[in-house]
């Protein structure tokens, strides 16, 4: 009896592929139309009114039980299954970047200085395609499905306000799935691993206040540039001497502004940077060390300082059991090995509340020239991967038993 059951499961899993099924192929024209419209209308975090209104129009033409606007420009769409059921959530981010587009596409951005350079137009189009498939198959739906179109992944983070306004409630979400188009993963492959996948981020700002004086009489002033230079150099000592060598952490100061004239001591220096790690406890410890270092700088240099945490996301950590279940669903030859990355994603906030799995959808295609990295002004992808993403969502739902025949 046991052997027969195992054989049946194996047979079912062999049926799953990322090649689009016939019903998914029928969505192609609509999905490409969605993607191209969204690509032409890029807007940055919490300003995604065009995308919000477009998605609302599309969803209201389907058969969802409830559609709600959250966090100003976000959307939650609920489709209830025949139950008693679990609730599976799928999330797509919506915002664009302040990057002037240089792709040369016929459907390039119509908004000067802004571009979907991180694939979020594709994420929205795929989730809209999945919404259409769900709507057409709602009579076979066993589990509840929640679709989340989330604003502002790139800036201050839209996940937290979405959660505060009920993204994971009514129905209560049991597990959430998200993915990102990834040019480091070959097209047709899916990058997936259990445990830490992306780092936590603390984006910080620091002001160092000194006292201006003539550059030829430095003894009468307090040099904010010198103090800032000491501080930036000493930051790396935290990583090499205060953090366990087996723990991964980095600090980058990417912005430093100080001074107004070549012969005047700067009275103020302003810097901004990032702290990345895969362990929230390490992040908190390093932040305390950074503030302790500022206190020492005040005593040694005579400056005053101010530390501000601008943005914080916890690490993206894929739930081991749910990740294993998704791996069982996907064909082995479609899985691509990935290692933890120091990039950050506010999908992590959902995972702080419910189990979650984040995947990388491969887009690298050297033959077609789709090789540019995320955030490049030439970033582009083959639109065939839009159907791959919808098929991936469908396979997850089917493989987890969310559909009844």
The dominant shape is: elongated
Order of helices and strands: HHHHEEEHEHEEEEHEEHEEHEHEH
Query: Please, how many helices?
Result: 11
- Indicate the CATH architecture of the largest domain: 3-Layer(aba) Sandwich
Helix content bin: 25-40%
Q: Roughly how many Å is the radius of gyration?
A: 24 Å
Q: What is the makeup of the main sheet?
A: 8 strands, mixed
Here the CATH topology of the largest domain equals Aminopeptidase
Q: Can you give a write-up of this model?
A:
This protein is an alpha/beta fold. The protein folds into two domains: 2-199 and 315-399, Zn peptidases (Aminopeptidase), CATH 3.40.630.10; 202-313, Alpha-Beta Plaits (2-Layer Sandwich). Helix content is 33%, strand content 24%. It has helices at 2-14, 22-25, 28-40, 49-60, 120-136, 159-164, 224-241, 280-301, 320-329, 348-351, 384-399, and strands spanning 66-70, 74-79, 87-93, 144-150, 175-186, 190-191, 195-198, 200-209, 249-258, 268-277, 304-313, 316-318, 335-336, 356-364. The strands form three sheets. It has an eight-stranded mixed β-sheet with strand order 1-2-4-3-5-14-6-13. A four-stranded antiparallel β-sheet has the order 9-10-8-11, covered by helices on one side. Strands 7-12 form a two-stranded antiparallel ribbon. The longest helix is centred in the last third of the chain and has 22 residues, at 280-301. The chain starts with a helix and ends in a 6-residue tail after the last helix. Mean pLDDT is 95; it is low at 1-14.
